[in-house]
Design goal:
Helix content of chain B: 25-40%
Number of helices of chain B: 24
Strand content of chain A: 15-25%
Oligomer: heterodimer
Strand order of the largest sheet of chain B: 17-22-18-19-20-21
Order of helices and strands of chain A: HHHHEHEEEHEEEEHH
Radius of gyration of chain B: 34 Å
Radius of gyration of chain A: 18 Å
Number of domains of chain A: 1
Helix content of chain A: 25-40%
Number of helices of chain A: 8
Number of strands of chain B: 34
Strand content of chain B: 15-25%
Largest interface: A-B, 51 and 36 residues
Structural class of chain A: alpha+beta
Shape of chain A: globular
Number of strands of chain A: 8
Largest sheet of chain B: 6 strands, antiparallel
Shape of chain B: elongated
Strand order of the largest sheet of chain A: 2-3-4-5-8
Chain lengths: 215, 997
């Protein structure tokens, strides 16, 4: 009971800290600090994001540097359900079921919970991770690579962009329209990538909002 | 004997009369008894949007938290398992003849049967719904008694249709069945929540793909399941029951939550809700027309109640959200507290529940009144047929007869002998009364007692002043049809497409003025209007279910769509505007060159019929003020002002709205007093270029930069254009193209209506308020304080387009000397203001005090000042007031010294915060006994001095609390000397300065 209370207090403190630290850095300040945005890019970007993009290619080209495109079906790196579960487990992400909402062909599937005995493949696996201090993360496995979305941070952040955690400076995205992966380095005004050596429970437990804020 | 006979006759007569009277009385008594015995019942069925998911507490949650053991058995907390909220919207419903609301204890199980359950699908009407519990907040007893033990971790809720079996068994029948069902069959909320926590960058098109998949499933199976469900509810409830299928609200603010969703994604999600509601509404319509065994001559007794419009602007992540955001983590009263996010997410909060209630209550009350009306009519008709025929006043009887009506001719009961709008409405479900001015309407249908409902007035204020009894009223909007629809109508000979008509409804000012379900053109039993202070419009328009959408422009009544007896507007019901082209107001501004005595609309002149006038004390709080025609006072060149400023501003905006990629525009030539003429347009950014490089421009091509405070160069009738030279928000009075964004150059036009020695008054259109004309005053020679349009005022520049010969001549002359700065009248400080409102805060020495509000993201200085004025004006016993950044966040707070005398003086601190309910937060107060406020290194210091001591303390707002820390105390000796701290005094001014100004 006491542990739960402490956990809640800690969570509240973290949320408060996230709020306060978020408040101190506006997007404009961030952009000027990062100094990565060419003049006029912001307007262009706004235009891009406020209208429906017609293809993933145009979308990612507008908001990132596209490094690579891979067809999901032809990729050898895609994990099977069993591999994905083991992959997550090895890194300490076993609290929640692993799910996927797409088949390897890109169709939407209703049967979303993955099985450790299945050799079926899916383009995108998801699970959640609740850190020791009660912070929620979404953990993603795409094309054999792992990414983490600090939901707790993004929900309370005052930044105009999402933060993802990756093991490199690039991110894999899934295009449900063409059933393709895009490996991109997002522009700083689109998504911020926090690079860590290894995405696992221990690392995420240790990551603070301040670190996420400061890239 | 004869006397006896007479006496007997008299006695018999008396007995006869008495018996008659008693008989009548008895009949009334029976009727009353029957009325009293009417036991209205509401049954509430459905899913989480019906159960009140997201609004704790839930019925039975205390039983869940603590084992409730009765007779050795654990009582299952069914209400909690179903997440039936104590504050559900159904519980707030009321019924005539039933005390209190449905959720009152005495009504539960008597008048109200609440079986909705969070997570229910259509299947759970017929089959039980299993609720799994994984809540670590429950006490050990719960588990001990096996309520939620691992092998019995939940409970099966009864099939919801069973409620009708229960009613039948107890000889009861439902009068109304409220239903919100179908949403979980398509699990939109779940998809949105998942999409949000995955993040949009990771999955391109994933959201749409999932939703597309749902729609395929909907078309193949779900729609039939829903239709079967509604049909089953209707049949189980019986023909006497009206089934009210309640729609779903839009979930996401297109302007909010941009971290998770792009604008188009949020819009896309909301569009899906709209589409879903349309489909539900279509299903209901089809059931209304479906012949069935139990109701052979009519369709099912079922109605669709839309709520979507009521939530516009109140979606999750909007400033005033009525839908819960995504809530992380699970809440203590969630069934599954180990879930990463709460089931409360994306469900209405208490405000949303009230909005739901209002929508449904309105329909119930309407149906009840209709029933009453038909009962009265039946009794009238039966009395007419039984007794001698006498003219019976119908519902139109209070309306003045039309000229030409044949005298002596008795109208048929229930039908007026004269043609009138109501008859026309009743005879035609898609009414077109097109292109009529109100004079035309009067001429054609005779004078009517119009109530002029200005959509910018609070509706309750209108009804507070309305005459009692049946009154015919028009809803009028003073807004205008969007420009693109003008173009469309001109291209198509005065017609617009249904989709455009819909756009008018959804996008323009029509639906946003008062309430979401905007209705008009009807007869209202205004004497039944019960609660004008609660903004409760439910008593409008019930006598006849006529739901119309109209708009009006320059006193032309445009009826966009009208439907009788239905609250649903399907695409097929839209009525094209078929205004004869010759009746359309000319766009050519030369049309408006004719003298127009008032501005901007001539509504008061057009109608001699009663105009609702608010009491003065209420008008004071209407802000901004709708333009009231006013003769210019002694102003320069006022006689030259003889064209319609509204048209002038429109024309100027036409030019200005020629936008290039960044919103910078160019206006080449504007002609004073002859309307505005667009001569040519060219390159972008010319206005800015003019500001930066005036020498590159010949004076004829563009106006003159208005230098502060040289008002002398302005004349009435000039068009002023404000330009943000370094970008920024164009502010509250944006001309639209850059509204709401801080990214573009801000440009706005103003019409100069009055020029005084040290002030100028201008009119502007306020897009945020439906293009309402706003009057502003710029005092003391500074436009930017009062009328500045840039987020950052220092970037505001003003250009007057003055092209009279005199101005040209002036331009060729050497630049006139700047007049000396005016001395402020508020010599000892206070808000520098006029009867128009506030200008700025003055320090009493002729200097303007920067208030430090400019850096607020969503709160400009002008707003803060006016809000401060409002607070000060409405707070009793304010002795002094000023501004200080007490929480040291870079923005000043309002400081007020309140109280009746030294003994109870207090310093009160108020923070401006648009995110709070009242746009401000009260931070706290501290004693102000014999005190003065000082500043030291940015901290607020209070020095309190008595005969014996001097106390110095620091006041700060930290960690959510106003704190006062004593720094030093000095004893005052015989000599009475005080320690001079050398701190700067914080200036507070007295309240009466501005009030008397």
């Amino acid at each position: 009971m006491i542990a739960q209370k402490s956990k809640r207090i800690l969570l509240l403190c973290c949320l408060l800290l996230a709020f306060l630290t978020g408040c101190t850095l506006s997007l404009q300040e961030y952009l000027s600090e990062a100094d990565q945005i060419p003049t006029g890019n912001y307007d262009r970007l706004q235009g891009q994001l406020n209208t429906k993009p017609t293809s993933a290619e145009k979308y990612y080209e507008a908001i990132s540097k596209v490094i690579n495109q891979v067809d999901v079906i032809s990729s050898d790196a895609v994990h099977t359900e069993a591999e994905a579960i083991a992959f997550f487990n090895r890194r300490g992400f076993s609290q929640y079921p692993v799910t996927s909402e797409f088949t390897i062909n890109g169709d939407v599937t209703a049967d979303s919970e993955m099985s450790s005995e299945s050799q079926g493949k899916h383009p995108l696996y998801t699970t959640y991770f609740l850190s020791e201090d009660g912070k929620l993360w979404t953990i993603l496995d795409m094309n054999g690579r792992i990414f983490a979305n600090p939901v707790f941070f993004n929900l309370s952040s005052t930044l105009d962009v999402q933060v993802y955690v990756s093991e490199t400076d690039s991110i894999i995205s899934y295009d449900g329209m063409e059933n393709r992966y895009y490996e991109t380095i997002p522009h700083a005004d689109t998504v911020r990538v926090k690079v860590v050596d290894r995405i696992d429970a221990e690392t995420l437990n240790g990551l603070t909002e301040e670190e996420l804020n400061n890239k | 004997m004869k006397n006896y006979k007479q006496l007997i006759i008299i006695i018999c007569s008396l007995l006869f009369v008495a018996s008659l009277l008693l008989g009548v009385k008895a009949r009334f008594a029976i009727a009353e008894e029957e009325e009293d015995s009417r036991n209205l019942i509401i049954v509430s069925i459905g899913d989480s949007y019906a159960s009140g998911e997201g609004i704790p507490p839930f019925y039975g949650q205390e039983d869940a938290k603590k084992a409730n053991i009765q007779n050795g058995y654990m009582t299952k907390p069914v209400g909690w398992l179903a997440h039936r909220s104590v504050h559900s919207w159904e519980g707030m419903l009321t019924l005539d003849g039933v005390d209190g609301s449905m959720s009152d204890e005495r009504n539960i199980g008597t008048h109200w049967f609440f079986v909705a359950a969070s997570g229910a699908t259509t299947e759970n009407l017929y089959y039980s719904q299993h609720k799994t519990v994984n809540n670590n907040a429950l006490d050990a007893m719960s588990n001990l008694y096996g309520l939620f033990s691992p092998d019995d971790s939940g409970y099966d809720l009864e099939p919801q249709l069973n409620v009708f079996k229960y009613l039948k068994k107890n000889g009861l029948k439902a009068d109304y069945v409220t239903v919100s069902l179908g949403g979980n069959d398509v699990y939109f909320a779940k998809i949105i929540t998942q999409a949000a926590i995955e993040g949009d960058y990771i999955s391109f098109y994933g959201l749409q793909k999932k939703i597309d998949s749902i729609w395929r499933e909907f078309d193949n199976t779900i729609q039939y399941r829903i239709k079967d469900a509604y049909r089953a509810i209707s049949e189980e409830a019986g023909t006497q029951a009206t089934v009210l299928v309640v729609g779903y609200p839009g979930l996401l603010s297109p302007k909010g939550s941009m971290v998770f969703f792009n604008t188009w994604e949020a819009q896309y999600i909301n569009e899906q809700v709209t589409k879903f509601n349309d489909r539900l509404s279509g299903i209901v319509e089809s059931l209304k027309n479906e012949k069935n065994d139990k109701n052979k001559y009519k369709g099912y007794n079922i109605e669709f109640v839309p709520v979507e419009q009521a939530f516009v602007g109140h979606e999750a992540y909007s400033k005033d959200a009525w839908i819960n955001e995504i809530i992380i983590p699970a809440q203590p009263m969630d069934l599954d507290t180990t879930s990463p996010f709460s089931a409360y997410s994306m469900h209405p909060n208490i405000k949303g529940a009230i909005a739901y209630r209002d929508c449904v209550q309105e329909v119930i009350d309407g149906l009840e009144r209709k029933r009453e009306a038909s009962k009265i009519q039946d009794s009238v008709i039966s009395s007419i047929s039984e007794e001698e025929p006498t003219p019976v006043p119908d519902q139109e009887s209070t309306i003045t007869p039309t000229p030409g009506q044949e005298s002596g001719k008795t109208p048929t009961p229930g039908q007026s002998s004269k043609p009138n709008l109501l008859d026309k409405l009743l005879s035609n479900s898609h009414v077109k009364e097109i292109g009529m001015t109100f004079e035309d309407l009067n001429a054609k249908y005779g004078p009517m007692e119009y109530l002029y409902l200005d959509t910018h007035e609070p509706i309750e204020a209108v009804f507070r002043n309305a005459p009692k009894g049946p009154v015919r009223f028009f809803f009028q909007n003073v807004g205008e049809i969007p420009g693109e629809l003008w173009d469309e109508s001109i291209e198509n000979n005065g017609k617009i497409s249904p989709s455009s008509a819909r756009k008018i409804l959804t996008d323009s000012d029509i639906c946003t003025g008062i309430s979401a379900t905007f209705r008009t053109f009807g007869i209202s039993k205004l004497n039944d209007y019960k609660n004008p202070l609660t903004k409760d419009t439910r008593y409008l328009n019930e006598l006849f279910d006529i739901y119309c959408y109209t708009t009006q422009y320059r006193n032309y009544l445009f009826e966009v769509a009208c439907d009788y007896g239905s609250k649903t507007f399907n695409e097929s019901n839209w009525v094209d505007i078929t205004l004869p082209s010759e009746d359309w107001p000319e766009r050519n501004e030369t049309k408006h060159e004719e003298p127009v005595p008032t501005m901007p609309e001539q509504k008061e002149e057009k109608h001699e019929e009663p105009v609702i006038v608010l009491p003065e004390e209420e008008e004071k709080h209407e802000e901004p003020v709708v333009v009231v025609p006013e003769e210019p006072k002694e102003t320069k060149a006022s006689s030259k002002w003889h064209y319609d400023p509204y048209a002038a501003l429109n024309s100027a905006e036409d030019v200005l709205n020629t936008i290039d990629g960044k919103g910078a525009t160019y206006m080449s030539k504007l002609i004073r007093n002859g309307g505005l003429t667009k001569v040519k347009q060219s390159g972008a950014g010319d206005l800015i270029d003019y500001l930066n490089n005036p020498k590159n421009w010949d004076g004829e091509r563009i106006g003159k930069v208005v230098t502060d405070p040289a008002y002398s160069e302005l004349e009435v009738g000039d068009i002023l254009c404000s330009v943000c030279s370094k970008g920024g928000d164009s502010g509250n009075y944006s001309n639209g193209h850059d509204k709401g964004k801080n990214r573009y150059w801000g440009i706005q036009v103003f019409f100069v209506s009055e020029v005084g020695p040290d002030y100028v008054r201008v009119y502007s259109k306020n897009n945020d308020r439906h293009n309402e004309m706003i009057r502003l005053s710029c005092n003391g020679g500074d436009f930017t304080d009062k009328c500045g349009t840039c987020g950052n005022k220092k970037n505001s520049h003003w250009i007057a387009f003055c092209f009279s010969d005199a101005v040209k001549a002036q331009q060729s002359k050497p630049e006139p000397q700047q007049p000396a700065k005016k001395t402020l009248k508020a010599k000892d400080g206070g808000f520098h203001t006029t009867d128009e409102g506030l200008g700025f805060f003055a320090d009493g020495k002729g200097n303007r005090m920067p208030l430090g509000f400019g850096e607020y993201d969503n709160l400009d200085e002008q707003y803060a000042v006016s809000k401060a004025w409002e607070i000060v004006a409405n707070t009793p016993n304010v002795e002094e007031y000023g501004f200080f950044d007490v929480d040291r966040d870079g923005h000043k707070e309002l400081v007020m010294k309140t109280g009746m005398g030294e003994i109870d003086y207090q310093y009160e601190f108020i923070k401006f915060d648009l995110n709070s309910m009242n746009d401000f937060d009260w931070l706290g107060s501290t004693d102000a006994f014999h005190s003065v406020l000082l500043e030291n290194k940015g901290y607020l210091i209070k020095e309190s001095i008595t005969t014996w001591s001097q106390t110095v303390s620091r006041i700060e707002y930290k960690n959510g609390k106003l704190k006062e820390t004593v720094l030093a105390e000095y004893e005052i000796g015989e000599d009475g000397n005080y320690v001079d701290l050398g701190y700067k005094q914080v200036y507070l001014c007295t309240k009466n300065i501005y009030l008397n100004y």
